[in-house]
Amino acid sequence: MTDRHGKDVGERTVPKRGTYIGNDAKPTLRTVAELTGLAVTTVSRALADAPQIALETRQRVRRVAEEIGYFPDRAAQRLRTGRTNVISLVLDPHEEILGYATSMINGITEALRRTTYHLVITPHFSDTPHLDPVRHIMRNRMADGIIFTRTEPSDERVRLLLERDFPFICHGRTELATQHPYVDFDNHAFAYQAARKLIAAGATKLCIILPPERFTFAHHMRHGFMTAVREEGIAFEIPKEVTLDSKSEDIRRVIDDRLSQPDRPDGFICGGEVSALAVMAASYDRGLELGRDVRLVAKQTSGIFDQIRPRTETIYEDLSEAGALMARLLLRRISEQPPVSELQALQTI
């Protein structure tokens, strides 16, 4: 190993966590620099995960810092660099997708765990404008980047963040002319393939429970569904009384009413596990057998359907992977600012 002047100093021995010399002083950047034989500026950039520093050097510096218990002074760091080393996830509470928040948070934190960044959850409640938490974060410079979900075709959050050139990435696409960073699931393919599966299984009339119309993925699902039913010329219906955001009891009640009628659907597509469970409950209450009288394809995001009998046809959306993708792409946006096309990902089936 060479020191900061290029001299060969051999391998340094790193003391165990908390045992560093110096009157029990708190380890600093200079401490890490002395132990690694690197310049303080190099150590600082390595801990910031600067791509200009060799990966091996970054890993060695990070390992030494962890072993001696060094943690950056975030207040001083913010004053010096203007960065908070915080990523904020604006989270909307909704229950139609089981494990949505947990899976996404797990993916984000896994992607951030070996970086200087940590995650802060910023809740957004349905009775407040969805611009409010974004404005609050920007105004108070509470994060270096923002992740948010449930995008709309003309999403005001995307417009604002693009105008202010503030780093962000969203779960879902928009229909804006200006390209932006996103990670999305191919909901068009989900609805199309789900419909094809039901038709192949013998269903003669399909029903799909869509998200609220204000969300972009509702349009993608509708288009995929309509493409499949038009190709086959099969009967279909889309309930207007309920959406994926409706309470499970309301969905069960509406489906129960439809199943009581002679022209009932016999194939259902559910974009969330909660709505699928409501369809299953309504079918059971009507004495209908799943797989024979009623067929179902559900989007699976948790392990719950692995434990349900009879087994139900599902198509899996990996929310943990989506979270990890968003975190990694957002960090690239913050540090490298690559072309927007390199900050877009579509999860396929």
From TrEMBL:
Protein name: LacI family transcriptional regulator
Limits of the HTH lacI-type domain: 27-81
Ribosomal protein keyword on record: no
Protein's organism: Pseudorhizobium pelagicum
UniProt-recorded Gene Ontology molecular function terms: DNA-binding transcription factor activity; transcription cis-regulatory region binding
Region named Disordered: 1-23
Residue ranges with Basic and acidic residues bias: 1-14
Protein keywords: DNA-binding, Transcription, Transcription regulation
Domain of life: Bacteria
